[in-house]
Design brief:
Elements: E1 8-12, H1 17-28, E2 34-37, H2 45-50, E3 59-62, E4 65-68, H3 70-80, H4 92-118, H5 121-146, H6 159-178, H7 189-197, H8 211-231
Helix pairs in contact: 1-3, 1-6, 4-5, 4-6, 6-8
Length: about 230
C-alpha cells in the first residue's frame, strides 16, 4: 500500500465540502498524503494543469496522475487501497442505492444550500422550505439504508456518511444564519443522532472545521457576493 506523503497529494481548500470528502476517505484508508491548499485568489498553476477541464478542487494526485471530482476520487481511493473496510457497499444493489443518494445530495441539497446564502425575502423562505423537505427524505433514507443503526454504513461510516457528512456542517450554518431548525428530534431523530456521532469519528474529527469558523467564512463570502452584485452595472 502506498503511504508516502510524496506519492499522494490533495489539492483543496479548508472550507470546501468536496475536499472534506477526499480527506475523510484518505483517513478512512489510512493513506498519508500531502495537503496543498488553494486560496480564494487566482488558481494555482498546479490546479490548472491537474484539472484543465473544470479547473476545480479537489484534485487527488497519486504517483503523478491527477484524479478530479470528489465522488470519483472517493471511488478511486476505495479501489486503490483495498486493505481494511470498503468505503462503498460490497453488494451491487446497495452500491447503486448509495450512488443514487449521493447524486441526490449533490444535485438537490448542495445547490439549495448555496442558493439560500444569497437569496432574499420570499425566495429565501421558499428555498429553506425545500431544503427542510429534502432533509426529511434523507432521514427516511438513513432509517432504511442503515437498518436502524447509527450510520448510513451501518455500524461504521461508509460512502454516504462521508458524502452527506460534507454537506451537514453547511446545513448547520444555514440553520444558524437564518435562525431555523431543519434537523431536530421531532422530525429527524435519526439525523440528530447521526449528527452527534459522525463529526466525532476518528477519521473525521480533524477534517471538519469548527462551526464558528464556518459561520465567519460564510458571512465573509455572503458580503463579498453582495458587494460584487452591488457594483455590477444594470
Amino acid at each position: 500500500m502506498t503511504t508516502k506523503s510524496d506519492d499522494v497529494k490533495l489539492i483543496g481548500a479548508w472550507a470546501s465540502p468536496f475536499v472534506w470528502r477526499a480527506r475523510v476517505a484518505l483517513n478512512f484508508k489510512s493513506v498519508k498524503f500531502e495537503s496543498i491548499e488553494e486560496t480564494m485568489g487566482p488558481k494555482s498553476q498546479l490546479l490548472l494543469e491537474s484539472n484543465p477541464v473544470y479547473k476545480k478542487i479537489p484534485v487527488l494526485i497519486h504517483a503523478g496522475k491527477p484524479i478530479s471530482e470528489s465522488l470519483i476520487i472517493m471511488q478511486y481511493i476505495d479501489e486503490t487501497w483495498t486493505s481494511g473496510s470498503s468505503i462503498l457497499p460490497s453488494d451491487p444493489y446497495d452500491r447503486a442505492i448509495a450512488r443514487f443518494w449521493a447524486y441526490y445530495f449533490d444535485d438537490k441539497l448542495s445547490p439549495t444550500i448555496r442558493s439560500i446564502s444569497v437569496a432574499q425575502g420570499d425566495e429565501k423562505k421558499k428555498l429553506i422550505k425545500e431544503l427542510g423537505e429534502g432533509i426529511v427524505l434523507v432521514e427516511d433514507a438513513l432509517k432504511k439504508i442503515s437498518k436502524g443503526k447509527d450510520y448510513f454504513g451501518g455500524d461504521q461510516i461508509g460512502y454516504l456518511d462521508i458524502v452527506f457528512g460534507s454537506i451537514f456542517p453547511w446545513l448547520r450554518v444555514v440553520e444558524t444564519l437564518n435562525e431555523v431548525k431543519l434537523v431536530d428530534e421531532a422530525t429527524t431523530p435519526g439525523l440528530v443522532n447521526w449528527g452527534e456521532k459522525y463529526p466525532k469519528h476518528d477519521v473525521v474529527k480533524d477534517v471538519l472545521p469548527e462551526h464558528e469558523k464556518l459561520i465567519e467564512y460564510a458571512k465573509f463570502v455572503i458580503a463579498r457576493v453582495a458587494a460584487s452584485t452591488a457594483s455590477t452595472p444594470n
